[in-house]
Amino acid sequence: MTMAENTKSSQNRRSAAEGALFPDALTGKSVLLIEDEYLVGLDMAQTIETWGMIVSGPIQTLNEAEEAAEAEEWDCAVLDVRLDKGETFDIARKLRKRGVMVVFVTAYSGDPSHFASDLASIPRLGKPVPYATLRRLLLEAMRDS
Predict the structure, then answer these.
(1) Which residues are CB-neighbours of 72 under 8 A, at least 6 positions away?
(2) pTM for the whole thing?
(3) Residue 127: what are its φ and ψ, rounded to 5°?
(4) What pLDDT, in 10s, does the model give residues 27-73?
(5) Which residues contact 80 (CB under 8 A, 6 or more apart)?
(6) φ, ψ of residue 90 in degrees (nearest 5)
(7) Apex CA 56: angle with CA 52 and CA 61, to 5°?
(8) Helices 3-12 and 62-71: crossing angle, nearest 10°?
(9) SS3 readout for the chain
(10) How far apart are CA 14 and CA 54, in angstroms?
(11) Cis link prior to 23 (omega < 30° from 0)?
């Protein structure tokens, strides 16, 4: 999916915020979704949209992820760690410097040695994604912001 397609897709999904099943602190918030496995990403996007969030993604390549991270202001980001040409650690660092809440979704969630010390405080969720936990993390972040 190209950046233009992601932007158009995000605009088309804005109605998801209006149709949230249970409006709360997540309703209308923007989330950047980076996941290289398309069906996993699509499932995440659809689930997050039911929470009333405006999802951009799933973005599958590192180049497109870097572009998207800098192209807009995000309330939060859900990042797969490993993509086609590398890892999303630098993207996470840039987003955090801008005050964006980041969650890693990765097969490496239980291996702290895989993460640099400056990324240790970023929540890490394994796959399959525990959606109740992801929702709780995002709600806590939105309430604290």
Answers:
(1) 30, 32, 56
(2) 0.82
(3) -115, 140
(4) 999 999 999 999 999 999 999 999 999 999 999 999 999 999 998 89
(5) 34, 35, 36, 37, 41, 88, 104, 105, 106
(6) -65, -35
(7) 145
(8) 50
(9) CCHHHHHHHHHHCHHHHHCCCCCCCCCCCEEEEECCCHHHHHHHHHHHHHCCCEEEEEECCHHHHHHHHHHCCCCEEEEECEECCEECHHHHHHHHHCCCEEEEECCCCCCHHHCCHHHCCCCEECCCCCHHHHHHHHHHHHHHC
(10) 6
(11) no
What CA–CA distance (Å, rounded) separates 39 from 18?
24
Distance of alpha carbon 28 from the chain centroid: 15
For residues 39, 43, 118, 113, the Cα torsion angle rounded to the nearest 10 degrees is -60
Cross-strand bridge partners of residue 56: 32
Residue 79 contacts residue 88 (beta carbons within 8 Å):
yes
Q: Give the residue from 86, 53, 91, 38 showing the smallest Cα distance to 69.
A: 91
Per-residue pLDDT tens for 109-127?
666 667 788 998 899 999 8
Q: In whole angstroms, give the CA distance from residue 16 to residue 27.
A: 9
Which architecture does CATH list for 3-144? Answer: 3-Layer(aba) Sandwich (3.40)
